[in-house]
Design goal:
The complex is a heterodimer of chains A (446) and B (411). Chain A has ten helices and 27 strands. Chain A has 446 residues and is α+β, with helices and mostly antiparallel strands. In chain B, strand 12 and strand 13 form a beta hairpin. By secondary structure, chain B is of the alpha+beta class. Chain B has three domains: 184 residues, 2-Layer Sandwich (PmbA/TldD fold); 113 residues, no CATH class; 101 residues, no CATH class. The longest helix of chain B has 18 residues. The chains are: A alpha+beta (446), B alpha+beta (411). Strand 3 of chain A pairs parallel with strand 2 of chain B, so a sheet runs across the interface.
Chain lengths: 446, 411
Amino acid sequence: MYKFPEGLYTDVRIEDVFQTSIQITMGRLDDVKEKSYRAAFIRLYDGKRWFYASTSDVDGIQGEIDALASMASKNENIEKDPIFKRLEVNEGEFLKFIGKDSVKEISLNEKIGLLKEYYPIIAHSEHVKLWRANYIDLNVKKSFYSSKGSNIVFDTQRVGMRIGFELSDGEKKFADRFDRGSNYFASLKGLEKEIETRFNKAVLFLKEAVDVKPGKYTVVLSPEAAGVFAHESFGHKSESDFMIGDESMKEEWKIGKKVGSEILSIVDDGNIMGTGYTPFDDEGTRAKETYLIKNGILAGRLHSAKTAAALKEELTGNARALNFEYEPIVRMTTTYIKGGDKSFEELISEIDEGVLIETLKHGSGMSTFTLAPSMAYMIRNGKVAEPVKISVVSGNVFETLNEIDGLTKDVKILEFALGGCGKFEQFPLPVGFGGPYVRVKSLNVR
Amino acid sequence: MIKEKYVEKTSQLAVNIENNRVESVRRKDITKTAIRVYSENKLGVAGGLGKIDEEELTERAVKALDFNIQYPVEPTSDLEMNIVYHADFNDENEFVNEIEELLVEISKEQPDFIFSNKATLTTTENSIKNNLGLNLFHSGTSLNIGLIFKRKGSGNIFDGMVGYSGLKYDRKEFLKLTNEICEAFKNSIEEFNPGRYPVVFLQSDSIYLMKLYRDLHGLIFATGGSLLSGKIGQKLFDESFTLYQTRNHADGFYGSFFDLEGTVTPEFRYPLIENGILRSPYTNKKTAKLFNLPHTGAAGGEYDSVPDVAAYPFSLKESDKTLEELLEGRKGIFVLVASGGDFTPDGNFATPVQLPLLFDGKRFIGRLPELNISSNLFDMFGKDFIGVGKDNLTSLGPSRAVIMEMEVSKI
């Protein structure tokens, strides 16, 4: 064990990483990588400032601790510091992805074989000009030790595949993909039907999509679009590091304030399996279910020990780091909108003219949030109608939260193979997101 | 058998800024090494972090040949170059102290704002060597100060940003830039009539170039999935529009001067569109050979990947006019923050501009309401292209801006 310096808080996070990536382009194997490494991140706090080091030399961790300590000032009262007091102490081994559940136990040939089973579904279409299939997995075992007494070992695992394709029909072009993430290799099997359905939809979109007439429409967001909306428009605003030091923000974001429609509840929970699964955060805090909005009322926010101490609130288990090169900052885990009481048919039946956003390229969220749709459709007289090409859908976050007037019962949590959430320099962090189909009375569609 | 060794080393001091003060300091020192072996038109790669055993890595790379990854290209040979440069700071303590002092001054001059995010001093070393006489070495230290700001009481996560990446540091100039932007932010201009306006982007902003990054990708282009496929040699854009793939300092690029295959291009640039004429998509060796395209030196990927086609930054050729001259007395809309927009498959572009500033070519006048801007790829860089100013927005370093006419309306 390490010799932690007196009068300071110290923690060490060692990451044992196993990862695979495979890429096949147009039937040619382009790249195969399987690697393992061990690396660490060290944090030290003196009550005034944090000092961090990341290293790929795990034998030199004690040296890094000592070097950081030499930059800090010894604090006899560190145990009275509100951040120190907030930090959880946990002990034990919490390994979930071991034995046959670990991607380490699956051969490279089996992983390559998975892609080979699927790509014939799209490879022979006359409309496919380019296709590329990717497989990735990432198994991380984290060992966390702190000067306060934490001593935990836990793991996370991400497995995923993507088949991306470029379609062409004369001058018409369209790019789409099938993307599936999970915690287990076995869940990537048997997806033939889903891949075929998605591919056929994309070809139809290529051939039939027309330009949307720009304007304001009632918009129905699919679980994918609703999840991105929840993540980008409200999830990021719930990350408490954005609130620190601004007294008027604390007033503006007072718990109990009405921020959305009464049918709206948004939750973040690291316990949910999927790509956002985070049993402990990177400060050693256990995952918790946190309501951000409950029935339209601001109910909570996401914290690290530092932000929880500053706002005098409880820890939520949301201090996450992209990898051993970075310090934990406040991030989401799995964020989703709770379901409502309608069927999909009921939800759209009340719309004379509207837009259904089915799939997305990306989204963003400041005071004006955006969704860049990939596949979208007009809704006419209560039915899904022609496919439409849309550059961007945008709206004011708070107006939109109040304009949500319908939710379907069923909720879908999505898991993607590649990509993730970006915040400052740390991208892409695996997260989960989702929701029901969500109806918004008015959004700007261009 | 040809053996190649590629090494990436990053040493970084990152100063994390929260509420106008230094909250934490992070040191990073990471070395990544890859060995590649070429044999019978195949490539095997193996990589490792930190201290590595080169013999063991070589054995793994040889074993990786069994994957039968076809790589029918000649590795770069007989080329030796060595480029080393430094930012104004060499001493880490000096950098931390300067950021602390800078923040004190910014807080005094802009008390209505909260500044956060990071300042970094980063040294990147890249080297590639093989037994065909290739020996390239790059070592560069550059600084980045990226501050996001929020006006006190604003409901936004952040309202805007001010920053600079480069080699030179001048506190007075950085303060001047920060003050100009913050003062313009405070001057709210509510009245706005929809119509066609000159829209000004920082050249390094990628949002207006998104479609070209995608449609000039060598593989997408060559296989017919690009709007530009099959149009090499055609004049598609305005005469004054020239687009480079760049690894040149003059364009604000401070990474390695060679790509992942050890290719060095003249002046560290490659013209993909020249005077409006499409010359080439961006390619690595393999894509260029497979599809008989020009080779532009755009191989990238992770240090231990088989090199793939990768987008390096684009830059635009500047005109012989200043921004003020290009605007010809009109006021432009400077896009300081535009997030979330995109192009349709046909090239139609639209994005909200979350922070637009009214701009006269020399100074930021005030903050406009949130706007929508829209156009089409072929108009933006065709009939509606006004040009790239020859002047920089700040004397700190490369910071040119580009102007094009667009439809603009209030959100």
